[in-house]
Amino acid sequence: MKKILLLTAILCCILFSSQSLDADWQLTTPFLKAERVVKMEILPDGSYLVKKKNEYDDLLITENDGKTWRQINEMSSVADFAIHNNKGYAVIGYNLIITDPKFSTPGTSHPLPSSYFPQSLFVLNDNTIFISTTNSRIMKSMDGGVTWNVYTVPTVYADKITSVFFTDANTGYCVTDATLGKSFIFKSTDGAATWTKVSETSEKFDKIIFKNPLNGIATLTGGTTRYTLDGGNTWIDANINNSLRDIKIYNNEFVAVGLGIPNKLYRTLTGEVWDSTLIYPSSYYIFTSLAVGGGKFLLGTDNETSDEINHSIFKSTDLVHWIPTNVKWILRGGLMYNNAYASKHLATVGGYVSVDKGMTWKYMPPNVPTGSLSILSNGKGIGIRNNSYEFWRTQNSGLTWTAQNIPYPLTGAVAMKPNGDFAIATRGDNANSYKGYVTTYNATTGWSTPFEVGRHVRVMKFVDNNVGFLLTSEKMMKTIDGGITWTVINFPGVFNQPRDIVFGNSSRIYVGQYCSVDLGNTWFINNNWTSSFTDFEIFDDGMGYGVYKGDVWKTTNYGVSWQKILETKLLYLTGANMGKFAIYKDYIIGTASYGFYALDLVNGTLSTHDARIETNHKMRIYPNPTSSVLFFDSSKEQIKNIVVVDMAGRVFKNIDSPKETSIDISDLAKGNYFVKITTHSKTYLEKVIKK
């Protein structure tokens, strides 16, 4: 009977480990300072695509009006993209990608001719596609991107063809940037095979666009435009004095966003005479791109002159009244913060604060702490502002805060005790800034005498009202008198790596890969996922979460065992580069160089990957018992994953896509184990004995 109960428990554990969140990480802060919005397109369902100017000219999409975003490219520059006939086209690296308009599937990828650097893309129809280059070439495909012909544009030097536009299969135009004071408009009447210069200027051409075969406009960076009324044979300077950053066609008009103070929206029927309308009363916004479609209009911006995180996209339904979206710029400077915290009502990362589980962020708001925080499960907590005398207390898990002053400067880590007392780590003043102190506060006796603990206390936590631990960059210390005094304890780890102290319960303490079950007196390497997690957190009820390369694990027994519940679909480098996580019971905030990501742990429903558990030996596992190697008879099925756990559910081996039909368990201690083998259709469970 005991064996049956044990097997049932293990099966439940295995089944739980196969559950996964349908939800995934959502990018909530797509734009960083030193970037700008350079192109946008609105899809019929209201989704919109945005290309921004940064290291890789990233292409993003939002399907919920800017609330969350998905990045389309990974470590490959996006030269240009287009939407045509319900298809999405993008030049990413040296390939033309053709897929659905939301770029939600890989689609088809066509390599482009080598030695040419793609610049702009124009799709005439499903078969005929043109791509300009940075060295005076036009690439043309007449079979949907499968094969290409390359034609030379006779510029003075190998110039960049900044824009290309075709009114039909034969008639097309392109514009160039300036080399030694000369840039040009070229026209082709034979489908790009040959080109004739039709206009010349000392400025740089940015874009060329036609609304019909006769009427077109070419924009220049110097603040003027040229228009044609005779199919591009002659070009005339227009009476506009502000540089047009982007131009579209709407209701048979040319509509453009220009650079000026105040900002204006420019409209013209032919390009000869322009009218302008004030679009927003702020002079801080520099608008760089325009999108029209489906009764919606969008304006993308450049970085503002203010240090605040301001809006990056504005929207309108009439081209007259514009409102800012929730999409804001995030200050660049590295988002891999060591200081990240999440509670029921508040998340903080560096100087950023979110009160809606990471969906929107504010930078350094004046009415909440933005430094170290410590909030208990009963809602009581404290927080500080970085490098200041400002100090806050909360009674409702961070929903509201009451500010007060503290008597010590340059505050660092803070820690609440179960009884409501707390401790604060501080640095010395300018004369002894290399010294650090801990001071405790008691509601009856007030502040204690500061106790010197060393420089830069990065984290401090209390197990109960008396026992607590702290980490500096040089040592680990323990208190048994509520923080009045501290002593150095023997910790075997490297102090420049552990960034947190996690309590599994009063008898299990984790610091990085090390664990103690005797209140820090001795430590051992924890042979579990905690040694791999970038960050993890465990709560009072024994439930907790850990994250590694974007994948998420869950524990329900204070960290004794963990089960993967999310295998992220993020771009690999994004997940791997997430550097710090703020973890709470129902959401997690991830930080990466791309911005902040949010994961909803409640609204994502659980589903089972495994079709069923097979326990009737349909896959032969031998020899059993064994002292070293186990072999699997998998001639009929391909193995996807092998997991070895002990009777307590601790995972000792977890091998994805094994190359061999065997596994070496000679490094395991003698005893009983369970081996779970997952194929594409089944999951097998077998008890094995290591002798």
TrEMBL record:
UniProt keyword annotations, A-Z: Signal
Domain Secretion system C-terminal sorting: residue ranges: 621-689
Top-rank taxon, per record: Bacteria
Record InterPro entries: Secre_tail, WD40/YVTN_repeat-like_dom_sf
Keyword Ligase: no
Residues annotated as signal peptide: 1-22
Keyword Signal: yes
UniProt-recorded name of the protein: Secretion system C-terminal sorting domain-containing protein
Annotated source species: Chryseobacterium phosphatilyticum
